[in-house]
Automatic annotation (TrEMBL):
This is JmjC domain-containing protein. InterPro entries: Cupin_8 (IPR041667), FIH-1_dom_II (IPR027452), JmjC_dom (IPR003347), RmlC-like_jellyroll (IPR014710). GO terms for biological process: negative regulation of Notch signaling pathway. One of its GO terms (molecular function) is ankyrin repeat binding. Residues 134-306 form the JmjC domain. GO terms for cellular component: cytoplasm; nucleus. It comes from the Eukaryota. SUPFAM superfamilies: Clavaminate synthase-like (SSF51197).
Amino acid sequence: MTTDNTDWHQHDFKKYSFPLGDIPRLHHTDPQVDELIKKKQPVVLTGSNLVGAASKWDLDYLEKNMGNGEFTVFISETDKFKFFDEKKLVEIRSVAGVHVKDRPAKEYPRPAKSTTMKIQEFARRLREWKSGDERLYLQQALNSSSGASVVQDFIRFRWDWVTAKQKLHNWGKLTYNLLLIGLEGNVTPCHYDEQENLFAQIHGHKRCILFPPEQFECLYPHPVWHPHDRQSQVDLENPDLSRFPKMTNLHGVQTVVGPGDVLYIPIYWWHHIESVKPAKYSVSLNFWYKAGPVGQVEYPIKGYQKVAIMRNVEKMLAEAMQDPEEVGTLLKTLVLGRF
Ligand SMILES: CC1(C)c2ccccc2-c2ccc(C[C@@H](CC(=O)O)C(=O)C(=O)O)cc21
Ligand SMILES: [Zn+2]
């Protein structure tokens, strides 16, 4: 269990060009926890025992108990695992009711390719991994088809506790529990998700850097129709300031989560996550919840609501123009020199 964030050897970590505050770490019974979640502010909850039944989920245990299924594994030549949504490439769009299969969009570089393998092969390749080899990141939705004892552990999670959180904060339904097993050094680059996330760390440690939705203009997300939708175009470690000048206004918050910690990543908050030393690999399990009902809209509207509006404008224009390339031109015509 990480006792306290401050004993972290920060000098080990990558240095970034932007300031980083600390995400509060609070015991899960602290009343401030629910105040922060209600305000959609990130917070690390300690001592919840949410996935205590999984504290034994190291590679040996998972290798023996994850069953005989094929698991999704992403492979990357670099330390970055920037996910790529194939579905965006050939989107069927209806034009006046007629389904028009789009011509496949121009070829995009695929930084991480996905494959499947049995847990035994994954574990072997992780143990044999040495610097210079391609990196692996297992990402698999947990379900009843996992091995019997893993399912037993899953059932013994603190579902009462997490369901009470879901109800108290009016979150929608639980969509996924993604099991994540990645090498130390793997980086999931800066992106946001459209779901509330209780991110439970099981083995090893992860450095999590978060930015609020209001910093949308500093992070230059790809267009919504792009396979890298929801992900920043900016390489935080090596920002191209000529293309992304507003990146100099970036300021975030960070934490290092260890076994037993649960990080609340609010919906639409940007997060950049890295598996860090000393463990050779990390095991995490996230709990993704659909957004709750919008309810009474209060003005001025909040940052994350503006992101949702901008996404809808991009989608509507792409649909109307039937050619995503023209959307940029139209938007520039609409605003440049006028607003
Ligand atoms: C990078 C990877 C393996 C991936 C590849 C291709 C498609 C999807 C994904 C995906 C989705 C979620 C995560 C977990 C976490 C980041 C982290 O812990 O690394 C995170 O962002 C979250 O919990 O929201 C990681 C991945
Ligand atoms: Zn995410």
